[in-house]
């Protein structure tokens, strides 16, 4: 099922499967901002990463002495969400634990994802509720893919990403198995700008930890169209595009893939969130289109 949100400036479409954002159309300029989801390149558009972000070592983890398996980025992106609320400019989706989820993830939970329009801005909010009686451990991330180039008369290489702070930050390389290596590689050296190119992601995603920036913009010097993405409260940021894909994924994460030397204990996992029984965890990101 496709849910549509609309105001005077934006028309947004969301699939109930995975609560996945699939279209952002700015009506006053007639411009689509989302990747098409071409399955020949990468069939997703904005998957929800839960209850893990990235890859587990050997695709498995240990909790209370028991082994469990989870695929890369978890299971939420492939599951049908219930529609909790639907208004003209706001919709909420919920995913609850089930017998199927409990086999691989032994926690009782509700994951609520809300999309809301505010003029030329889209806000995506997450709530994780621990409905069990024990502490809950999880990671959560976003993975929206924005179209590049935005304008047909421009090329992929005409665009760049601009952070809101000058950064000195290395990128954390990813192994072929999807694990985070032990040491970063020099990348941002007193800089706030990342030039897009077809070779930028030849070694997988660019992964950053604890940037000073809380905003990243996709822009070009050839026209006035782009976006501003706000990700305060997310300690990790991934940037990625598939080979041959006309898009850039801007991925704010609360959590990260296992490191190559991880002991596979869920409670020791870098970036893992611990939520006490009966409590609720909240985060949101926003993106403005121009």
The gist of it:
The protein has 290 residues and is an all-beta fold. Helix content is 2%, strand content 46%. The protein is built from one helix and 22 strands.
Structure description:
The protein is mostly beta strands and 290 residues long. It is globular and about 55 Å long. 2% of the residues lie in helices and 46% in strands. The strands form five sheets. A nine-stranded antiparallel sheet has the order 7-8-9-10-22-18-17-14-15, with no helix packed on it. Strands 12, 13, 16, 19 and 20 form a five-stranded antiparallel sheet that branches. A four-stranded antiparallel sheet has the order 1-2-3-4, with no helix packed on it. It has a single domain (2-289), classed as Beta-galactosidase, Chain A, domain 5 (Distorted Sandwich), CATH 2.70.98.10. Strand 19 (236-240) and strand 20 form a beta hairpin. It has one helix spanning 99-104; strands spanning 2-6, 10-15, 20-26, 31-32, 60-63, 66-69, 82-86, 90-96, 109-118, 121-130, 136-138, 140-141, 145-147, 159-171, 185-195, 206-209, 215-220, 227-230, 236-240, 247-254, 273-275, 280-289.
């Amino acid at each position: 099922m496709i849910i549509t949100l609309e105001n005077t400036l934006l028309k947004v479409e969301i699939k109930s499967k995975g609560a996945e954002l699939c279209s952002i159309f700015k009506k006053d300029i007639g411009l689509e901002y989302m990747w098409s989801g071409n399955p020949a390149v990468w069939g997703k558009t904005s998957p929800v990463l839960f209850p893990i972000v990235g890859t587990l070592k050997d695709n498995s983890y240990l909790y209370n002495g028991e082994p469990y398996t989870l695929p890369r980025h978890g299971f939420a992106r492939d599951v049908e969400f219930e529609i909790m609320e639907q208004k003209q400019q706001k919709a909420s989706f919920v995913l609850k634990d089930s017998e199927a989820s409990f086999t691989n993830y032994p926690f009782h939970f509700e994951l609520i994802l809300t999309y809301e329009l505010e003029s030329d801005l889209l806000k995506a909010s997450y709530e994780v509720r621990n409905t069990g009686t024990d502490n809950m451990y999880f990671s959560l991330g976003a993975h929206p893919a924005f179209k590049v180039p935005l304008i047909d008369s421009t090329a992929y290489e005409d665009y760049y990403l601009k952070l809101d702070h000058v950064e000195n930050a290395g990128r954390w390389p990813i192994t072929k198995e999807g694990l985070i290596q032990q040491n970063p590689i020099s990348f941002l050296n007193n800089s706030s700008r990342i030039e897009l190119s077809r070779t930028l992601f030849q070694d997988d995603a660019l992964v950053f930890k604890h940037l000073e920036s809380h905003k990243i913009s996709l822009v070009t010097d050839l026209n006035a169209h782009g976006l501003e993405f706000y990700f305060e409260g997310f300690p990790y940021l991934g940037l990625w595009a598939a080979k041959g894909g006309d898009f850039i994924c801007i991925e704010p994460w609360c959590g990260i893939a296992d490191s190559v030397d991880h002991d596979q204990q869920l409670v020791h996992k870098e970036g893992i969130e611990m939520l006490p029984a009966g409590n609720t965890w909240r985060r949101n990101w926003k993106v403005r289109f121009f």
